[in-house]
Write a structure and sequence with these properties.
Oligomer: single chain
Distance between the termini: 35 Å
Radius of gyration: 20 Å
Shape: globular
Length: 267
């Protein structure tokens, strides 16, 4: 027990010594998983972190840099501002094409599609670590493993239920067009045999009325909304229709895990 406690203290100490490397002039994160790891590594208050997306769950009171609304950073004036900086962004052909036109920006694409939570963390840390000094992902990994174990226990209590996860809130029982199926935390729960959901091999699918009519009447329909830096947490339920709002809910990895735990704890 003492050895474990000492190891944890060392991990925490290592995390607080963590910093951006000298080679990094300024750093911007337009990648959700990168921003979450930066938060876990206690780098949010570092001077070299200059900007993040408003869609990432980092409060304005804790970060004094720039918040970029979706798409605005693509403006030419803003791109000029990023020159000389290291910029991380989530997988996107369009953004890759745009960043390739600005040779003075070190742009790094982060690919997490189809990955489970632990794979996301490993991938993100591998991409980020060359720009860091005295950092370790061990504490974040331990924390994520603890949350996954908790999520697995919570989901086991609802194994007999059918869940449908819609991208967007449900208004007056009007269902959003897109379902999350074989991606992120939903895919992980399916693979762990903890979840029953819409039958499809696709990561995201436009649902079929015919298949929906074959679903059990007690099927839970969950509308997902990410509150970003507004940090709003809310569950609204009307029978089997539930709207879940949570910061980082649609970010692969720890964000989705936290959101799913919040849902199951409040069912």
């Amino acid at each position: 027990m003492i050895v474990l406690l000492f190891s944890f203290i060392l991990l925490v100490g290592r995390t607080y010594c963590c910093d951006f490397s000298r080679d990094v002039k300024s750093f911007y994160s337009f990648s959700g998983p990168i921003s979450l790891l930066i938060k876990d590594l206690n780098l949010v208050g570092k001077e070299k972190l200059k900007g993040i997306s408003v869609f990432h769950p980092i409060e304005k009171v804790t970060f004094k840099g720039d918040f970029f609304p979706g798409g605005i950073f693509l403006a030419h004036e803003t791109m000029r501002k990023l020159e000389g900086s290291t910029v991380f962004y989530d997988e996107s052909r369009e953004l890759t094409k745009i960043f390739s036109q600005y040779q003075k920006i070190k742009a790094v694409e982060v690919k997490t599609r189809g990955l489970g939570p632990r794979e996301v963390l490993n991938t993100v840390y591998k991409e980020l670590s060359p720009f860091l000094v005295q950092c370790s992902s061990a504490s974040a990994t331990l924390n994520l493993d603890f949350k996954l174990a908790k999520l697995s226990r919570l989901m086991s209590k609802h194994r007999s239920k059918m869940f449908l996860f819609f991208l967007g809130n449900i208004y007056r029982e009007r269902l959003p067009e897109m379902l999350m199926v074989q991606d992120g935390i939903v895919k992980w729960l399916i693979e762990k045999e903890k979840l029953q959901t819409y039958p499809s091999p696709l990561a995201y699918v436009n649902w079929s009325s015919k298949i929906m009519n074959q679903m059990p009447s007690e099927t839970l329909k969950i509308g997902l909304k990410d509150s970003g830096n507004r940090m709003e947490k809310k569950i609204q339920r009307n029978g089997n229709v539930i709207n879940l709002t949570y910061p980082g809910l649609l970010i692969p990895g720890a964000g989705q895990v936290d959101g799913m735990i919040y849902l199951l704890e409040n069912l």
